[in-house]
Predict the 3D structure of the following.
Amino acid sequence: MRSEVHGTSHVELVALEKSRLWHPFTQMRDWCAPEHEPLFIEEGQAEMLRSSDGRWFIDGNSSIWTNIHGHNHKRINDAIVKQLERVAHSSFLGCTHAAAARLAGRLCDLWPGGKLTRVFFSDDGSTAIECAVKMAAQYWQQTPGQEQRTEFAAFEFAYHGDTTGASSLGGIGRFHDKFGMIHFPIRRLTGVEEIEAIPPQDASRLAAIVIEPLVQGAAGIRLWPEGTLARLRSWCDRTGVLLIADEVMTGFGRTGKMFACEHEGVVPDFVALAKGLTGGYLPLAATLTTERIFQAFLGSVEESKTFFYGHSYTANQLGCAAALASLDVFEEEKTLEKLKPKIVILREILAEAQKKSPWLGECRQCGLIAGVDVVRNKTSGEKFPPSALAGVRTCLAARERGLLTRPIGDTIVLMPPLCIREERLKQAVDAIFYAADKVAQEISAEYSATSN
């Protein structure tokens, strides 16, 4: 069989896939093994994705936490096509365009009090964080009497991206330890109590602290205690440390509000946005900051206060058009309002599944973000050995019931597009329930056979 799009047979595509591609966060030995059959995605509609063999799946992780309003959304499609008919991209160095100006204005207007006034566009979540870190470092260099603020603080189990500066902030060993020789030193913290105990002389050396508000995604959907963000904002106000909020994953409705910071009435000094910014269509990121920060970068050529940082595709016009359309959809379809009952339903069906299954441990939910642990013993909390690959196998088994998602260790992540229908939410949780039961019994049998 030959693909009408590529003019290439499926067998030839698999051969190219295994001989030429390198996938992220993937052990390619197993991927390239002869028995592995890659899943080719060819079409998307709303919360569903269709593979090349004709099967439809629920997009259970929003295509790595990016898709907001669903695939193939006419409003966003039309906006991209309309922009494409004019120009796809033009340099943002020495020129500008209307879509970028309009998008910057709308992003700033989403934050209360007019406190965030400037937007720096880049490409993805890592670069949005990279911008914030470099801006913070340079800001203090250009602020008289504050040159000693050269250190940064971040949290245990944090993930803020994979570029060098962003990965320096990360607190998950398997992602970052191998690159420690190129990282800058970080003050690693476990929680807000430890922050509040930092001596004043140590706090005076901190340029900024970075946090994923409300929930740490790559940590396994780890929820912060209520009030953590507000306490952190208060501490930053007292000590002068700049607050960077990584809303790359939590932004654009995931938590039930447009931004996670809204839940605790916090406006940070920097906000990193990406993933859902374009509705999951195109790479685009934004770093928002205050006028106070911006003003410190103004000066003569001789003073060299310019922020010397940028990307070839900064403020890409197609990306800006998609982002503007996505914000329109939020208003036109009342996305956040319609999300409220879905959040309640997800909580109820997760609790029911967890109660029935001996293999589903703790369930953690924030808005339409959820993580459920696959465990060996729910009562004791005993986990399966890492070598059992319980999380990976559970996600593969869930495909049999029409769900596509990825695990974080043995935590199964469910983070569907916000447009997901209630019956699809139930189908997704049922798939996890079925898959966990199947895999747990398989693993138990394997270990029983081994011990005998």
User: Anything to note?
Assistant: The first strand starts at residue 41 and ends at 45. Residues 369 and 415 are 5 Å apart (CA to CA). Residues 75-332 form a domain with the Aspartate Aminotransferase; domain 2 fold (CATH 3.40.640.10).
